[in-house]
Write a structure and sequence with these properties.
This protein is of the alpha/beta class and 438 residues long. It folds into 2 domains: 296 residues, Zn peptidases (Aminopeptidase), CATH 3.40.630; 114 residues. It is built from 12 helices and 11 strands. Strands 9-6-10-5-3-4-2-1-11 form a 9-stranded mixed β-sheet, with helices on both faces. It has a two-stranded antiparallel sheet with strand order 7-8. The C terminus is likely disordered.
Amino acid sequence: MDIFDIENSVIPAEDLHDGVDFIGEFSAELQQYGNRITGTSRETACARVICRRLADETGAKTRLEAYKAYPFLGRGSMPVFGLWFLLCYVLYFVSFAGNRLAGILLTLLALAVFAAGAVAMITLQFGKRKLKALLNQKISYNVVSEFSKNNDKMKKERVFIIADNHDAVLGNFFKDHVIMSKLSHVMVPLTATVFVLFCIIKMAVGTDTSAKITALSVVPAVIGVLGVATTMLRFSPFERHAIQNNGIATSIAMTTYAYFVEKPELLPDDVRIVYASFGGENSGHGGSEAFVKAHPEFAGASVLCIGDIESGDLKIAERNAVRRIDFSTPLVSVIRSSAHEQKIDISTMPNDTLPQKLKSIHGFTSDAFAQNGYRTATILAEKQSADGVDFEINDLEKLFSVTAGTFIKLMNEAAPQTDEPHAEEPPATTELKVTVLK
């Protein structure tokens, strides 16, 4: 591992050490709210702690913003699809009991139910809210803070946002999450293919002999049990199985924001800096979507998202290859330039091969921003081994330096040449506010 020389950092050594100390302290504090999956009391408690601590640390106006979250969006839809898949198999085996015509009709019904379920699962996996009327709703919270030196409410400001998510990822019923992930990637498409194939064969050849019944029931039964079990057990809706959010991303983002708030001389007069920590982000990226809808006044902002930080192997997500969403090439260039000038290793996430593409199947926080015209990219760091979180203080220094350096470079870009009036803001406050978005 390359050792980061703090002499190369854009942050003075004392501020860098103070920031890293806070990151370690606050991330440890957030561990008290581990397993904080979407809409749970722990997630809400975590959001309140972030809000209060941010107000105390910066004095900037800070608030909670509530929105309707859907736990069965994204990863949470897999167990539901497992139950749906089980229903399809029940219909398939019931079709053996009738005559040839009844068997064909029931098999067609099984195929139709399967097709509807497959469409529904893809819709839910991608976080689409078309079926939200069928889903249970919970309240989740975003934490939002903003700061500006500008007192002229009619002057147009350039907005820079640093964002993270404080919710936890759904786990599964087994300890080895990697094996379950690989099994599901193999078994789910295999089971679906076998089911459709045997439905077609059954309708074509019938089940008028014992040999046909045996051949058309044994293989689908074995594959079906494995497929349904893998699908239902891939993600668990229970808090006790969650993959804990280590709080590093939240602490890094908060420290970067606080650094500029506490050193306003680093901010140009036409700059507003915003901090956002999203809840429910692992349920179809509900937090970032709710934030974008709630804040049209931030349209066109530059947004740096901090994803899961589990090692010192820093990567930039410049594209969601599965959804074909491209993030901001200029922003990616600024991040890389910031890292290069500070002699920090960072690279873009590859997305050429199928396994590489699948790493973006659950999306990035940048997705909602990119789709709404924001300049955005995500920094993340995946585990380098299966033994747990793999990073050191040196890695925290690198990430803090990269994020601060990126904002410094972005803020020093040429300002817009024209001033346009914009909506008047409420007076600054550090009190907690809760806004429920309908």
